[in-house]
User: Fold these one by one.
Assistant:
Number 1:
Amino acid sequence: MPDDPILIWGAGAIGGTVGAFLVRAGHDVTFVDVVEDHVDAIADPSRGLAITGPVDQLRVTAPAFLPSALNGTWRKVFLCVKAHHTEAATQALLPHLADDGYVLSLQNGLCETVIERIVGRERTVGAFVNFGADWMGPGEVMYGNRGAVVLGELDGRITGRLASLHRTMLDFDDAAIMTDNIWGYLWGKLAYGAMLFAQALGQDSIAGSLANPALFPLWRGLGAEVMAVADAEGIRAEGFNGFDPDAFGRNGTAAAAQASVDAMVAHNRTSTKTHSGVWRDLAIRKRRTEVDMQIAPISGIAARHGLTTPLTDRLVAMIHEIEDGTRPMTDDNLSELAGFVAA
């Protein structure tokens, strides 16, 4: 029987999907979100939180609150907000975190570095997720495809709490794993994430963009820049869902990189989530992206090692131009960035 209650802070694509499965499995889950209509739907027995899409169909109801209305403390807090909201959300959840509790970062980017600064390293647990999901509206999340789910302590130890957490997450995905190298997965996702940000510059799908042979130099260039920084940091990057870090590393060949890109295309072809969450932020929800928390920090880390990341920096600048309304979202942007590689 499930043990400690779980507080899920952020009930969007990631938090809503994971939380709904855990509720169905019998876990005591409380949701927190800043969208009032979404909170109302989750808590309403006549509506609830619906998970749609090809992976599974379910509808659950659970306690749900705006941050200002929440009372109580929890030992298990799953943080599932966008990367650029990490600091504010962690400060807000701090009064609700038990002294012997922890925050699990179910996010993209290196958010664990922000969380540990606020709650303490010993109360922070890392995670890597690569499943596809989209928040569609109040009370609905589309679960497009399964992807890697990995849990790890920041210091690499396999602890009792990690094993307990792993057992819980198996109720979400029976292929979830524990690792002694969570930072390796997070850096691998940074390289793949840079590719997703590039896809968001235009209109083609993830699979369509990755499969475009004219854009192969772009994917190889982005992967190589990020992997070089990871290597300088002493990180052994990990692979997942077609992404092969060695193919983009210092000894990687064009053939190996192409094979990895082909495998990523195959993985994404299976998903009803055709476009990245970054693309949805720009094209559908008309809001700023996570670029300054996810991708932009790569440049600063590189500089500490005497490295430069001109392609990644140009990508960040182009995302900002779209956010500011000075650049249209067209596939020409990807061609332009691929041309920057050649230049």
Number 2:
Amino acid sequence: MTDDAMIPGPAGPPEFPTAVAASMDATPAAVAADGNAITAEEAAAPRELTETGLEALLFVAERPLTRREIATLAGVDRLTVDARLGDLEVTLRSRGIRLLLSGDRVELATAPEAGGLVARYVGADAVRLSPASLETMAIIAYRQPITKAAIERIRGVDSDYTVRSLMHRRLVVELGRSEAPGRPILYGTAFDFLERFGLTSLDELPVLDAEVAARLVDPGDVTGTLDPDDDPDRDGPNA
């Protein structure tokens, strides 16, 4: 380092610190994809939701998104979100990704026909469900929301361990609590259930024959009503 490098430069004008602070306060609210600042006018301009944008958003999301969240992020109404979801669902039918719908939530997942190849990569085919887990899973899938007590009445055996095991594998989730006395927990299927069984929505569950459907009926269960305050898919007044 030379002696010249040690010599401080000329002092700036007295108002320099104030000018720097003012410029820092004027940091743009957003930055475009090319790195250029977005002006306040551009940020406030009406936005739109394209099919490409929706697909990208769902791809980077680390969890299922609700229609309300998508509408808020895109600055559009719910009807626009529903329309773009419908467009994207049709587009993805011939590709390796599918759109999963569960209540108000949406997510991307691999196509069922690619399941074997994907399973060999992630090792998912090594995880098998026991007969007890499959039986409990079926009861929850067709009867949700359902309490553990109702599951046990239908199966005739204690199901605490089986339910906890399904929750650990993220096939079953807590949907909220019943309005019945004691407010027992209500269980239902998760997105991982749809992925595991190659479904895009619960509407694709096979229709049960009369004999099997009769076995799922629990006349003593009066706890299957979800408390509205606990409903994760309940729309607010501004939805």
